[in-house]
Specification:
CATH topology: Chemotaxis protein chec
CATH class: Alpha Beta
Distance between the termini: 42 Å
Order of helices and strands: EEHEEHHEEHEEH
CATH superfamily: Transcriptional regulator MraZ domain
Shape: globular
Strand order of the largest sheet: 1-7-8-4-3-5
Radius of gyration: 18 Å
Length: 152
């Protein structure tokens, strides 16, 4: 499998490291991702982690517009100024830095959440709250009663 799927919660050790789930490490290996890039998610209290293609995707979005626009500058400020490179150690662990903790609220555990071509780091309680909210929205939108449509 070449996608990050599912979720797993792991404990942070005394040195501030957390083991990346084996299924996520396997995807990193299969995709030959050696360098990890992390940014703050723009919607959720999570940190998004991916390979160079993640950074490339955001840079293409910045390049598509006027490089001097407020939007392009905001994106660059957040993506370049607010991003960090992460590295797995020899045992498949990441350091849970202040950058990650401050934005996510993570304290002693990390929930890894697959997002197809990247994954996210979440505080377990916040993840479950947001997952339930998303499920509720989807359930409400997926189950309309017969004959009811959107009013236009």
């Amino acid at each position: 499998m070449n996608r990050f799927l599912s979720n797993a919660t792991n404990k942070i050790d005394a040195k501030g490291r957390v083991s990346v789930p084996a299924q996520f490490r396997n995807v990193l290996t299969r995709l030959d991702i050696q360098e990890l890039y992390a940014i703050q998610d723009f919607i959720y209290p999570a940190v998004t982690v991916g390979g160079p293609d993640l950074l490339d995707r955001y840079e293409r979005q910045i390049d598509e517009g006027d490089p001097f626009s407020v939007d392009a500058n905001d994106m660059s400020l957040l993506i370049h100024g607010g991003g960090v490179f992460l590295k797995l150690d020899g045992e498949g662990r990441l350091m849970v830095s202040d950058f990650i903790r401050d934005y996510t609220g993570i304290s002693d555990q990390v929930t890894f959440v697959g997002r197809s071509d990247h994954f996210q780091l979440w505080d377990p309680v916040r993840y479950e709250e947001k997952r339930q909210e998303a499920l509720s929205r989807r359930m409400a939108g997926v189950q309309p009663r017969a004959g009811q449509g959107e009013a236009g």
